[in-house]
Amino acid sequence: MEITVNFYPSHAGSGCELQVRTVVLQEATTIRDLLQELSLKPTDATAIFRNGESALYQEVLHQGDTVTVLPFVSGG
Amino acid sequence: MPFGCLGKILHVNLTDATWHLEEPSPEWYRTYMGGSAVGSYYLLKYIKPGVDPLSPENVLVFATSVVTGAPFSGFNRFTVAAKSPLTHCFGEAEAGGYFGPELKFAGFDVIVVFGKAEKPTYLYINDGQIELKDATKLWGRDNSETLRLIAEEVGEKRVRVASIGPAGERLVRIANICNDMEHFNGRTGMGAVMGSKNLKAVAVRGTKPLEMAEPEKVKEIVQWHRTYLRGHPPAVFTSTAGTPGVLGNLQASGILPTRNFSDGVFEGAGKINWAAYKEEIFKSKGTCWMCLVACKRRVISNDEKYPLNLKWGGPEYEALGGLGSQIGNDNVKAIARGNQLCNLLGVDVISVGNLTAFVMECFEHGILTTADTGGREVRWGDEDAMLWLIEQIAARNGIGDVLADGVKVAAERIGKGAEAYAFHIKGNDLPMHDGRGKTGTALGFALSATGADHVETPHDPMFQGEGYKFLAPLGLLEPVKPLEIDAAKVRFFFLGQKAWATNNLLGLCNFASVPIHGLTFEKLIEIVKAVTGWNTSLHEVLTAAERSLVMARMFNIREGVGPEEDRVIRRWHEPLASGPLKGQKIDEKKFKEAIQLYYEMSGWDEQGKPRRGKLVELNLEYLLN
C-alpha cells in the first residue's frame, strides 16, 4: 500500500516548508513501523497526524493514508 | 461541598502564630477552581496597592485545585502566588512533584500566609494537625539539608517539603521554592517572599484519600489516559528525552537563545543536546505524583570539578539553555553542576542564566570590568565564572548583591548603558525561547501578568501544518505561521492562551494535559465532571481560565502597570544574526497593533484595562471599585 508522508527537514520548526514523500509499505503496518522505515526515533517524531487527526503509534495504516510528522519546538 | 476538594482553606498569621479555617461555598470553588485564580483572589482581597513585596503586608498563597490529587498523570501541580519582589506585579509560579496532592491528602486545598514570624519558622501540617515549628537550626541550610532535617524532626520519611535555600533567606529576588530537590516554583521570586516572612518551609503529610464524585468513571478514564500516553507521540517524546530533547529542535529551527539573545544558533549545541546529555550525565528518569510521562532527568558524575548528585535534580531544557547556549557554554557537566547549585541554594536557574549572560555582555562592552568583580573575568563561555556567579548571587556577595535584585535593577545600578543588555519584560527576565521564530509565544511573553513566562503561552511551531487541529476544539481552524504577526496570529494566541491558562488554573502539567501532550479537551472535561460531580462544560472551564487571566491583569492595573509594559525585548525587533532564520525580526509596529487587537478581542480598552462588561461577564464586578 502507498502512504503519503509530510515532514519537516531536520525537524526544524519555524519557517520551513513541509516536504512530501510517498512510501510503499506492507499491509497491517502501524505508524510506529512507518517511523522505523523512515529512520525516525521517538525524539524526532513529536506529533503525528493521520488523515488530519492526531494519531497514536499503534494505529494501523491503510492504503492512501496521509501521515504528517511535526517537530517539537515547544517549552516547559 | 463539591467532590475533589476538601472545602477547607487554612489561613496562617505568622506575626502572632495563629491560624483559622475558612470554608468557602461550593459556588466559590466553582467560580475560582484553583491555582492562579485562587492566588489572584486572595492577593486582590488582602494586599493593598503599593505594599512592599518583602514586607509583612504581602500575602503568600499555596493553592491546589478542585482536581489536584485525582490519580491522573500530570494532575499534581500547585501554585504559589504573592506580589512579586522581582516585578512588583502579580507574582506566581507553579511546581509539580508531590507537594500539591499531599497538601490535599493532609486536609487543605489552599494555605494563605500573612505577616512575619518573629524568628525562623516552618509550618507543619500532618493529617489536619497544624504546628508552627522553630526553624532556627534550619536557617542557613541548603534545600537538601532542610529536607533531611525536617523529615528527621517530624519522624516522617514521606513528608513533602516546600522550602527555601539561603538565597530566599537573604531576600534574593530571584529566589525560588524547592520541593523534593527536583521541583521548583521557580519564577517571580516567591522564595524571597517566604524569606521575608521568616518562613523556611511548609511541610505536609497526609493520608486521607481524595473523595471523588464518580470513582469508577475516574478509574475508567485513568486506564484510557495511561494507554493514550504510551502511544501519543508528544508524550512519548517527553518521556524519552525529557525537556532536554527540545534543545536540538530549537537549534535546528534557528531559535535557540544564544549569548543573551544575540543569536539563534549555538555552535556548541551538539555538546549540550539530549544525545550528549544522555552520554555524559544521564542516570535515570524521575517523575511527579502518579505521572507516567516521567519527564524529569536524574544525573550523576564523579567528575572532580563538576560532581553531580543523583538526588539533586538534572537540568531541564531551561537550564541547558540558560547556563549553556545563552552564555556560550558547551560543557554539559558544568551546566548540570550549576543547575544543582541553584537547586541547593534556592535560586531560579532561568534568571541565573540570564544574569550571567548580562554580565558577560557587559564585560564584552567594557561596562563591567574586573574592578567590579573583585578581579574575576566573566567572559562568554566561561563555565567556572557561571558557577562562581551563582554562589555570589545566592550569598549577595559583591557583584552578586547587585545582581540579586534581578536584571532590571542591576542594570539601573550599574548604569553606563547596561540597560541596553538587560532583557526583561515587566522586570522578569526571559525563559529560553526566542519570539522571533514564534511570534505567538512573543505575544504570550508580552502579555503575561508575571512578565515573560513560558508556561502561560502556546508555542507556534507545534501548530503548523495539521498541528492546528490540537486547538480546533477551541475554534482554531487554520494552520499557524510561526513567523507572521497578523490578525490570524492574534486569534491563535487568544484561543491557545486559554488552554495554557486552564492548565495553570487546574494545576495540570502541560506535558500530560491539553492541548498537545496528553489529553483531549473532551477527556479533560470528562475528568472534571467525574472528579467534582459538576455538570460542567469546556465553556465553563475556559471561562474560569479567562477569569484567572483577567484577575491577574486587574492586580497589575491596581499596582499602576500600564500598557507600555506589554512589550517584548529590543533585541527581538532586530534581525537574527545567523542560522536558518538569519535576518528574521519582529516588526515593532505590527507587534503593537497585535497587542491592541488582543485587547479588543478580550473586551479590554485601549489601555489594556478590562471593560465593565467583561468584568460583569466573569462575575468580577466587585473589582470595578
What would your notes on this structure say?
The complex is a heterodimer of chains A (76) and B (625). Chain A has 76 residues and is mostly beta strands. Chain A has a single domain (2-70), classed as Beta-grasp domain (Ubiquitin-like (UB roll), Roll). Chain A has one helix and five strands, in the order E-E-H-E-E-E. Chain A has a five-stranded mixed sheet with strand order 2-1-5-3-4, with no helix packed on it. In chain A, strand 3 (47-50) and strand 4 (53-54) form a beta hairpin. The longest helix of chain A has 7 residues, at 31-37. Chain A is globular. The termini of chain A are far apart. The model of chain A has no long low-confidence stretch (mean pLDDT 83). In chain B, 63% of the residues are buried. In chain B, the strands form four sheets. Chain B has a six-stranded mixed sheet. A six-stranded mixed sheet of chain B has the order 8-7-12-9-10-11. In chain B, strands 13-14 form a two-stranded antiparallel sheet. In chain B, strand 7 and strand 8 form a beta hairpin. Chain B folds into three domains: 9-205, Aldehyde ferredoxin oxidoreductase, N-terminal domain (Aldehyde Ferredoxin Oxidoreductase,  A, domain 1, 4-Layer Sandwich); 243-364 and 368-416, Aldehyde Ferredoxin Oxidoreductase Protein, subunit A, domain 2, CATH 1.10.569; 435-623, Aldehyde Ferredoxin Oxidoreductase Protein, subunit A, domain 3 (Orthogonal Bundle), CATH 1.10.599. Chain B is of the alpha+beta class. In chain B, 38% of the residues lie in helices and 12% in strands. The longest helix of chain B is centred in the C-terminal third of the chain and has 21 residues, at 538-558. Chain B has helices at 26-32, 35-46, 99-105, 143-154, 166-169, 190-196, 215-231, 233-241, 246-253, 274-280, 317-322, 332-345, 349-364, 383-395, 399-403, 407-414, 439-447, 487-506, 521-532, 538-558, 588-602, 612-617; strands at residues 9-13, 18-22, 60-63, 78-83, 90-95, 110-114, 121-126, 129-134, 160-163, 177-179, 183-185, 199-205, 282-286, 296-299, 424-425, 428-429. Chains A and B meet through strand 3 and strand 4 of A and helix 8 and helix 9 of B.
